[in-house]
Amino acid sequence: MSSLPSSRRPIIAGYYPDPSICRVGEDFYVANSSFEFFPGVPLWHSRDLLTWEQVGHVITRTSQFEAGAYRPSMGVYAPTLRHRDGVFYLITTAVEGPEGHLLMTASDPAGPWSDPVYVRGLPGFDPDIAWTDDGTCLVTYCHIVDWVPQGIHQAAIDPSTGEVLEEPRLLWKGSGMQWPEGPHLIRRGDWWYLVIAEGGTERGHCVTVARSRDPRGPFEGAPHNPIFTHRSTSHPVENVGHCDLVERPDGSWAAVYLGVRTVGWVPRQHANGRETFLAGIEWVDDWPVFVEDAFQVPAPDHAIDDDFSAGLAHPRWTSPGLPVESVATPDAAGGVRLRPAQAPAGTMSGLFARTRDLLWSARLEIDPDGGAADAVLRWDERHWYAVRLGDGQARAVVRIGDIEHEAGSVAIPDGPVAALLSAEPAAHRGPDDIVLAVEAAGTVTQLARIDGRYVSGEVSGGFVGRVLGAVALAGAPRLLRFAYTPVGD
After folding, report:
1. What is the CA angle 236-242-246, rounded to 5?
2. I want to staple 116 with a disulfide (CB 3.0 to 4.6 A). Which of 102, 177, 180, 189 is the partner?
3. What does the pLDDT look like over 11-42, one tens digit per residue?
4. 275 with 329, same domain?
5. Per-residue confidence band for 1, with pLDDT thresholds at 50, 70 and 90
6. Residue 471, domain extent
7. Beta strands in 77-168 (DSSP E)
8. Which secondary-structure segment (H or E) carries 325?
9. At 454, is the secondary structure helix, strand, or coil?
10. pLDDT digits (tens, 9 = 90+) for 218-266
11. 163: number of Cβ within 10 Å
12. Residue 191: helix, strand or coil by DSSP?
């Protein structure tokens, strides 16, 4: 696989949306939102903006985030990551959680991060944090009342306590489109730029900008807003927006933003969630101008082959609702032991990794060990496809909204078997076909082939993406091996 222009290949593929970026010397760091998944706020490192390694998560303890309390696509919304005087700051909002924005700090971005300080009295989400020349700390956010956006507001706070020091003020209502949100305050020279998202994080998504000499405003919108969008175009990456800017060591600038790779028939579907993309930024008349293909992004290696001999230390592992250790523990007999665990919000939790490619194949070796387990491709608890193992049977089970259907079955022997799941080229105008199969006693049996659109954003809705993994339904089955292989580019 060769390099592709940066508008067509994500720098961080898979369900890693709402990127926020900061630079410390030669090092770049990106944080993403994570919604109901735990651990929360994936954090990445790069030296070249093109190749990224996940160094951990910001939220790793239940004292930071009430795991299990959030419905799908609630929980941790878009964060802002910044660095000041040797300290990293991460501010975000746990929607439907405790009142206030969560502000956490660390001396090392790999952690550990502090428990949150709560910034209360600023109702909304997508908070940004910035400092004036005199050291005043400003939080800028999407202000909402009863889920109706009221524009971008701002107030000074004490970052050590979260105390709000003044009445919040309206900075900008945006350029007139729905959902002005995702603000970031960026300084360049004498200008402060308020970069926001508008249009909703769907087909009308875009980036708009305003500027002021004072970070407290008043702000003047760019005459050519929106400054970046793919709406009403044939570009294969849609929904672009929610941008953050960074200055590179050589004085040039770049932007990270979210987008979705869409395929299939009308409406085209995205299956891996909202992903992180890269663009160059030039400055014309002191306004930022996107250069979409300023970079060539090298082909990634997303392959996984894990027998869990190193435990669950790799940051790829995640769980909807509950901490990973609540649902999986390393086992002396090999692999990890799974156990049924239902989060208080109703989600059946398990051990998962994000899918990161358009086409792929996966092999999950599972020993039901007298219990039962699903090897499952999941969007949320109402949209998933699974190979169900237990009671001497392998079954293909499909959940689409209120309908749960068994699509095929075969008898299997006692002991370990391999559940095989793959995303293959679509036969019916969906984004792909999901093939569910089982290998037992050397024989592979296809159980079902299902249109993949029912686990896509356009059908399932919400802000997340596909994850692939194993869920214990009864007893204590073991996941012995998890192998994931991208297919093609």
Report:
1. 105
2. 102
3. 999 999 999 999 999 999 999 999 999 999 99
4. no
5. low
6. 304-486
7. 80-84, 87-95, 101-106, 117-119, 124-131, 137-145, 148-157
8. helix 324-327
9. helix
10. 999 999 999 999 999 999 999 999 999 999 999 999 999 999 999 999 9
11. 13
12. strand
- The answer to whether the CB of 316 falls within 8 A of the CB of 56 is no
Give the Cα separation of 342 and 57 in Å (integer). Answer: 23
- Percentage of residues of the chain with pLDDT beyond 90: 94
Rounded CA-CA distance 463/349 in Å is 18
Please identify, among 238, 266, 297, the residue that sits at the C-terminal boundary of a domain. 297
Q: Which is nearest to 472 in space by CA: 332, 383, 351?
A: 351
370: left (phi over 0), alpha (psi -120 to 50) or beta: left
Q: Which residues are catalytic?
A: 18, 181
Nearest to 365 by CA among 306, 323, 302, 436: 306
Q: Which residues pair with 300 in a beta bridge?
A: none
In the chain, the number of structural domains is 2
Please check whether residues 185 and 324 belong to one and the same domain: no
C-alpha span between 171 and 196 (Å, rounded): 12
What mean pLDDT do residues 473-478 have? 96
* 156 touches 131 (CB < 8 A): no
- Are residues 362 and 465 located together in one domain of the fold? yes
- Residues 321, 415 within the same domain: yes
Question: In sequence order, what DSSP letters do the residues of 378-391 get, joined into one string?
Answer: EEETTEEEEEEEET
Average pLDDT over residues 57-72: 92
State whether residue 81 is helix, strand or coil.
strand
Q: Do 18 and 167 share a domain, yes or no? A: yes
- Give 427's contacts (C-beta < 8 A, 6+ positions apart): 433, 449, 451
Q: Which residues pair with 479 in a beta bridge?
A: 336, 366
The verdict on 8 and 63 lying in the same domain is yes
Helix (H, G, I), strand (E, B) or coil at 327: helix
Domain end call among 266, 297, 328: 297
Tell the residue number behind the tokens 């209360």, with chain if given: 120
Nearest CA-CA partner of 140 in 226, 20, 303: 20
Given the structure tokens 């300084």, which residue do they identify? 187
Residues forming beta bridges with residue 153, ordered by sequence position: 141, 170
Tell me whether the omega of the peptide bond preceding residue 226 falls within 30 degrees of 0, making it cis. Answer: yes
